[in-house]
Structures are given as structure tokens and as C-alpha cells.
Amino acid sequence: MRLKDKIAIVTGAASGFGEGIAHRFAAEGAKVVLADINDENGQKVAREIGGDAVYAHTDVTSATDWQSVVKTATDTFGRLDIVVNNAGYTHLNRPMLEVDEAEFEKVYAINVKSLFLSAHAAVPVFRAQGGGQFLNIASTAGIRPRPGLVWYNSSKSAAIGVTRSMAIELAAEQIRVNAINPVAGETPLLKRFMGEDTPEKRAMFKASIPMGRLSTAADIAGAAVYLCSDDASLVTGVCMEVDGGRCI
Fold it and tell me: Which of 114, 144, 175, 218 is the right S-S partner for 170, CB 3.0 to 4.6 Å?
């Protein structure tokens, strides 16, 4: 088991990539705090995983909620080793000037501000115990943007920048910070990326991926296990594309 006895928080764990990461982490021996605002699905995933998981209602844009979920991890399992910042949001695929200010602020709050808040909540814990790690789920959109997603694209560029900047600042304290850049995948956000879920739109997205398919939760979870395992003990500041060749 590659994550035996590790304690992890996974945000957005009630569905999509987060759900897949939570299940895989538990299968690899980790104990997982499932953080989400979808209580029904989050509790369902916790039941499926069993005693190695607890659910915590968490709004990732709230500093209070971040302090609470970190406390849940340390109170329940005794420590915290991994924070997976997976929760994400996008505006609908549309021309940039059709996205209003409220939608822009929501995208940046969930995709970028949450990283700031997670650092404030978890870094002191990591420092006190001599190390830890963050894994941020960014996107290929941050390095190879798609039209119609300007503000989402830029939020993921920011997430990549945060990852690399935190990694260099925290490296001497044995706090690793990495990211995964998934290509578009089968998650609840897919319809918003496409603007509308039609066979034609799906075909267009798949045609942009050299390996000819969208990403899956299993694809992202496999990369997450590696980056959060001791196999990657010297890996920090890496933003790994899991993209079927889209960014080549």
C-alpha cells in the first residue's frame, strides 16, 4: 500500500476526480477526510469507503471551514499528511465579456483563493510535524487554453503559479507542493466546459486529445497516488499533465 497510514484531506470529494482520488487513496492505505458542500453525495462516498473515511461539510472559499476541516483531520486521525485541493468551478463556455463579475469572482474564489486558505490552515500543521504535502488539481487549460473559457483558463494558470511558488518557498521545510493538469474529463464540470453536452461537442473535445479520449477519475487518481507517495519524496513543484498528449 503506497499511502499506508497517511492522512489526507480531499476537497470536492463527493463526485468526479475528488471521489476517485478519495477511493484510491483509501485503497492504498490512507485515511481520508472528504471535504465538500454536497452533503448527500459526500456522506455516500464516506459510507462506501468505510471506517477509513469521514465526511466534513466544507466550503473551500471559507477560512473558517478550512480551519475546521484541518481540525477534523487532526482530531479524528491524529495528524495530517496530505491536502488535495481538487474542488473546482468554471463559468459556462462563452465569450469572455459575457461572463459577469459575480461569476468571475466565484471561479477565482474556488479555484485560487481556496489554495491561499488551505495554505493558511495546513502549513502550520505541516511545520509542527516536520513536513507534509499539497496536491493541487489544476488543468491543461492553464497552459493550453481553450476559447470560451478565458477566466477559467486564467484561474488554472494561477493555480499552477501558486503550486510552483509555494514549492520553492516551502521545500526546505520538507513540505512538497505539486499539481496535476488533467485534460477535460468525465466530471460534473464537463457540460459547462463544452457549453452544451452534445455528441458533436464531445467529438470536438476528444479530437483535440491525441490519444482520443477524455480523462477519467482513475487516470487522475493514479497520478495523485504517485505524487503523494514516498516514491515521489524528492518531487516538488511539478505540474504533471495527464492529458493524452494534448499539451505536447
Answer: 175
